[in-house]
Amino acid sequence: MSERENVIDLNSDLGEGFGAWSMGDDDALLDIITSANIACGFHAGDPAIMRRTCDRAVSRSVTIGAHISYQDLAGFGRRALAVEAARLRDETLYQIGALDGIARAAGGRVRYVKPHGALYHSGSSDAEVATAIVTAMSEFDAGLGLLGPLDSELEAAAGRAGIAFYGEGFADRAYTPESRLVARSAEGAVLAESAAVAQALAIAQSGTVTAVSGVAVPVRAQSICVHGDSPGAVAMARSVRAAMQDAGIALAAFA
């Protein structure tokens, strides 16, 4: 079970369209999740999409988080870029500030930060990247929370800076024996609905998942991500939510 006994958060990555192009059914997901990781324009999203997503999140009392990324629209933020620490700090600050301004206009505010894609993985393993992210958060608002993998450089950097850190698990992604996500390019990296529901329950109830090797590995989490761009994402998210409720697990935002 998570550290909040019988309580878990469900999050999803939203606002990931650009211009006339859209991704996922954000409206449907906002009726299911409790926290929304909203793209800030660097891997996806633009001012109009950010405003629309914030408006809808606020209207449903869904907590808003800044889904920060490397500046990589062409690669959807999934390419690890060589960015010096000071620039990454400033780009992170820029993204948080932009989304927070729009969120406040919509009647809400940014309450946490979650790195996207390659930045999530780089921040998890690279202390310099993690420190740049956390420094930007501290400079903007030290009361922000950071969502990411436990036992990572992100968690360590947050601890040094006094930033609240929240562990994240993934319903629909396979795990390695090291409790890390299997690369999206690998076969079986994205789980089918039934497996995702079972994995989400395991994370919430026991803090473990069955890795691709077949062994149980720890994944302690206060929040579980259901990806909005996975096949059948909305149906999967509904099934995960229903399974949590059937198991007596309350759903509430962590931040």
UniProtKB/TrEMBL annotation:
<dbReference type="InterPro" id="IPR011330">
    <property type="entry name" value="Glyco_hydro/deAcase_b/a-brl"/>
</dbReference>
<dbReference type="GO" id="GO:0005524">
    <property type="term" value="F:ATP binding"/>
</dbReference>
<dbReference type="GO" id="GO:0017168">
    <property type="term" value="F:5-oxoprolinase (ATP-hydrolyzing) activity"/>
</dbReference>
<dbReference type="InterPro" id="IPR005501">
    <property type="entry name" value="LamB/YcsF/PxpA-like"/>
</dbReference>
<comment type="subunit">
    <text>Forms a complex composed of PxpA, PxpB and PxpC.</text>
</comment>
<dbReference type="Pfam" id="PF03746">
    <property type="entry name" value="LamB_YcsF"/>
</dbReference>
<keyword id="KW-0378">Hydrolase</keyword>
<keyword id="KW-0547">Nucleotide-binding</keyword>
<keyword id="KW-0067">ATP-binding</keyword>
<comment type="similarity">
    <text>Belongs to the LamB/PxpA family.</text>
</comment>
<comment type="function">
    <text>Catalyzes the cleavage of 5-oxoproline to form L-glutamate coupled to the hydrolysis of ATP to ADP and inorganic phosphate.</text>
</comment>
<dbReference type="GO" id="GO:0005975">
    <property type="term" value="P:carbohydrate metabolic process"/>
</dbReference>
<protein>
    <recommendedName>
        <fullName>5-oxoprolinase subunit A</fullName>
        <ecNumber>3.5.2.9</ecNumber>
    </recommendedName>
</protein>
